[in-house]
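Journal club side-thread
Mid-discussion, someone asked how the predicted structure for our own chain would compare to the paper's figures. Pasting it here so we can look after the session.
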Amino acid sequence: MSEIVSQKTTIACSHCGDECSPDITINGNNFCCNGCMSVYSLLNSHQLNDYYCLNKMPGIAVKETSALKFRFLDDESIAAQLISFK
């Protein structure tokens, strides 16, 4: 009896390298989100796509951050030292 093994093909975002689906595509490049696609489009429209020659996937994906990360800004004394306009 032969066993059939299915292999899941993953697609890497052309900008940041994160796994993505083939839903967002430009010029044969796949993107994980509209942000990565927008950066690629902006660079490409200004003939700056040599950026992608630096590394295979040089972009950095912005991940969600915890609301606790900026909780220190709720402290009025700290905020007063950092905020110049309100």
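Post-session note: The chain has three helices and four strands.
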